[in-house]
Amino acid sequence: MKLFILFTFTAVLLSCGNPSSESTTEGAGAEEKTVTLYTHRHYDVDKEIYAAFEKETGIEVNVVKAGADELIQKMEIEGDQSPADLLLTVDAGRLVRAHEKGLLQPITSDVVSGSIPAYLRAEDDSWVGLTKRARVIVYHPDRVDTSKLSTYEALVDPEWKGRILIRSSGNIYNQSLLASIVAHAGEDAAKTWAEGMVTNFARRPKGNDRDQVKAILAGEGDLAVINTYYLGLLRNATDEQSAKAGNAVKIFFPNQDGRGTHVNISGIGLAKYAPHAEAATRLIEYLASKPVQERFASINYEYPANPEAKISEELESWGSFKEDKLPLTKLGEMNRAAVMTFDVAGWE
Amino acid sequence: MAIPLLVVLLSLAKGTGETWAHLTRYFLLRYLGNSLVLVGGVGILSTILGVSAAWAVSRYAFPGRELVVKLLYLPLAIPTYIMAYAYVGFLGNGGTLVRIEEMIGLSPSGIDFMNLGGLIWVLALSLYPYVYASCRVAFSGLPASLRSASALLGASGLRYFFTVALPLATPAIVGGVFLVTMEVLNDYGAAKYYGINTFTTGIFRTWTALEDLRSATYLAALLILFVLVAVYLSRLARGRRSFVTQSVSGSECSARIVARGWRQWLVVGAVGTPLFFGLALPLGQLLWWVSGEPAWGISFSLAWVGLQSLLVAIAAAVACLVLALALVFLSRWNQLDVLRPISKLSVIGYAVPGAIIGIGTIGSSQLIVDFFADNYGWRIGYLFYGSSLVLLYAYAFRFLAVAYHPLEAHCLKLGKPLAEAAYLLGDGKLRALRNIELPLLVPAMVSALFLVFVDTLKELPLTLILKPYDLNTLSIAAYTYAEDEQLAKAAPPALLLILLVAIVLWSISFGKEAKR
To answer: Is residue A142 very low, low, confident or very high in pLDDT (cuts 50, 70, 90)?
Structure first.
């Protein structure tokens, strides 16, 4: 029992970290040596980039990883004593929500506004996109006639009955896609589309994006709507069955003759009560810079938000495409309408 | 202890949110239905698995029994979402089964496992150890005299099991199934992956996608109500019956017998089924994933993460045990009637989705932070956000039920006579507790410690929200990779987690078992 108590104390002490250095370095004018990042991203490359930033600037990056919704809730409750400097999410919708709740402040940096195009930033620059992912159609070349593929809207044609694979409506990428349709065509059109998709489903929505591609290979359906970076990861997987599934399908960018393919971002916002706003801005500038963008985006097969950064070879091979340049703020504003539409349409 | 819960309940006063009409119209009933089927299915399946396995190892002797007794606990160490991924990785498209079929020349076809039945199977196999653990304690405490008496009266082994042993183990089974039910209600990752909408995924949908925290809190409160009813029913089922068994002098526990003929196969089935499907298959799949990952290995950083997890889990287990003991005895001594409703309230932490508790905990600790900021101008936020204190507090709140139930069940079996005898002989309450009751409770205490330990190791939502930044745990490491569909990278921390549980399992003695 004594051993247990000893353990208990050690555990508490160990994890107490170093609170004193945290609270005393906040004085005005003092050089900011830490920055606290709340993030929903959890890729190994992120960790390496933060370490490189620390080496270059001497600013330590404290990372809190959790779901974006929990992090926003946490920031909201913590209020003006929140230790968060930055919020990094994997979609625009959550950043817009954080902004609506008054949790963000404008990023004042010419470097950032100079390197990231305006449609990938908030109107008041309170958040910026760092990487882009497109939601595309992948199909089995033997079973799908490419000439029949055109737009997201065309997927509801009777032609595709029982052939479409897509994950559930709980997924944020599906919500954003539908939100973009709501923004472009209105709620009624979005509802008709969602209902048409449900009619054409090959199976009840389940699994993740990779599972949809594997299901194409297994013959459960002929085409799937997935995010680009999952295809990149599948094709380059060490596991040969995954690679086989990834290589069995071809990629199609929809809506090229119209508004363009739907894209979403992974983006970062500056916290309203950031104790280290200056250091935080430096980190954003670092993440938006060309060399970091190339690394940040390429390892995960994402498209860099900085147009000067080169895209990876794999993405290059997929060809260039026209993006839907709908201001991303719309995705956040329409997200709730999209979810309710999914419920009404019976898209599980 | 119940403050986070109160914070949640108080927010009910603000009324339902604006999407309430939408969600009652479109999905509430369907989600509720799924949850009920899930709870029922997992409850039945895990009872069958847990009780039969516990009976087989308590009653029968067979080679390797000691090893099997412990192995049967291990599926608990595999987080349910990892088990869910492992099953799809094995049976699904492009999975291990397909590979094997290709190798032996069969036409490759996966088995679709991502449905309600599959989810029931996965949850039951990773949760049955709760039933098994409490039944082991109950069965191993059955005095030999009962068995001999039954045999003298002409009861067959089967009849002894159904009419004597099983009824006596009822509180233990009910306690175990209660824990299983709570875990099922709390499951999020596995259900989400399989595309099954449950009440809990509904709470999250309302909160995160519909952006209506108030309605989500309402749903959580409904869940709490549901659990209260379940608690009440389980007490009703127990009624006024007594489960006290008195052991007469001599051998306390009947000797185990060697099974022959058809019984032998039953025993093999009872322990083999959970071991194969709950342990060997998912473990095999995890190892397969690890072997496919080039840069794997128990690296130093992984070991450090493991150590942190270990320390936090031990701290949480001890805290829960102490609190649970206090609750059991204080309410037993009856001097503090006030404690009865509180003891019921605080064990509900287990049923409330972890994320909701997390919010309640942040909310209540924020009250303290604000108090100091307003009155003294102290900025003590870092104390709460930079240390594990809040996290430990939340764990204790969340897992109190896990420690409380086995202890309470065991206490009921011990009954009061021993303590009463001690009082008659002039012992005070505390002395009787220390000298007589606690030593008798050791098996239940060990099992309570172990369950909380494992639960804390696996815990996700609370840890994610409340952990300080320099703390990292195995479950977080496994989850973050799995969520991003990088299963090969999720496997090493998951395996280390299982290994840790195994080491702890082998180093602790399960009370009576070891002494004999």
So the answer is: very high
Tens of pLDDT, residues B281-322 = 999 998 888 876 655 555 777 888 889 899 999 999 999 998
User: If you write DSSP's letter for every residue of B239-257 in order, what string do you get?
Assistant: TT-----PPPSS-SBPPPE
Q: Which residues of B are less than 8 Å from A241 in CB distance?
A: 94-95, 98-99
Report field, pTM of the whole predicted structure over 0.80: yes
Chain centre to alpha carbon of residue B402: 6
What is the torsional sign of CA A131, A175, A203, A208? positive
Q: Which of residues 304-333 of A touch B (CB under 8 A)?
A: none
Q: Do residues B170 and B86 touch, judged by C-beta distance below 8 A? A: no
Which range has the top average pLDDT, A46-50, B230-234, B327-331? A46-50
Q: For residue A25, what are the CA distances in angstroms to A1, A275, B41?
A: 40, 10, 56
Test the A interface: residue of B484, B486, B500, B507 with most A CBs within 10 Å: B484
Question: Considering only the top CATH level, what class is A33-131+264-311?
Answer: alpha beta
SS3 B196: coil
Say which residues have a Cβ less than 8 Å from residue A65's Cβ, sequence separation at least 6: A39, A40, A41, A42, B464, B476, B480
- Look up the ipTM and state it: 0.77
**Domain B26-238+278-515 class, CATH top level:** mainly alpha
Nearest to B73 by CA among B282, B274, B309: B274
pLDDT given for residue B338 in this prediction: 55
Q: Cα–Cα distance between B437 and B331 in angstroms, integer?
A: 15
Residue A9 pLDDT:
47
Half-sphere exposure of B157 (CA within 13 A, CB side): 11
Q: Which residues have C-beta within 8 Å of that of residue B444, sequence separation ≥ 6? A: B137, B406, B407, B409, B410, B411, B511
Give A110 to chain B, closest Cα distance, Å.
30
- Quick check: B343 pLDDT over 70? no
Worst-scoring range by mean pLDDT, A213-222, B32-41, B138-147, B455-464? B138-147
C-alpha distances in Å from residue A260, one per residue of A117, A176, A300, A321, B377:
17, 15, 23, 8, 54
Q: Could you say which DSSP state residue A261 is in? A: B
Chain A segment 149-188 residues within 8 A of B by beta carbon are 167-168, 170, 172, 175
Q: For chain B, what are the domain ranges? A: 26-238+278-515
B98, B383, B469 ranked by CB distance to A63: nearest:
B469
Among B193, B366, B489, select the one facing A78 at the smallest CB separation: B366
- List the single residue in A with minimal CA-CA distance to B304: A14
Express each pLDDT in B63-120 by its tens digit: 888 889 889 989 988 889 889 989 988 888 777 887 787 778 777 677 777 889 999 9
Higher confidence at residue B449 or residue B443?
B449
Check if A214 contacts B (Cβ < 8 Å).
Answer: yes
Q: What is the pLDDT of residues A304-316, one digit of tens each?
A: 999 999 988 888 9
B residues 348-407 lying closer than 8 A (beta carbon) to A: 355, 358-359, 362-363, 366, 369, 373, 379, 381-383, 385-389, 391-392
Chain A contact for B222 (CB, 8 A cutoff): no
Cβ within 8 Å of B, A 15-34: 15-19, 22-23
**Which CATH number does A133-262+322-345 carry?**
3.40.190.10
- Name the band, by pLDDT with cuts 50, 70 and 90, for residue B245: low
DSSP conformational letter for B347: G
Which pLDDT score, from 0 to 100, does residue A160 have?
A: 94
Q: CATH 3.40.190.10: which residues of chain A? A: 33-131+264-311, 133-262+322-345
Confirm if A89 and A68 have CB atoms less than 8 A apart. yes
Residue B261 near chain A (CB below 8 Å) = no
Q: Which amino acid is at A324?
A: D
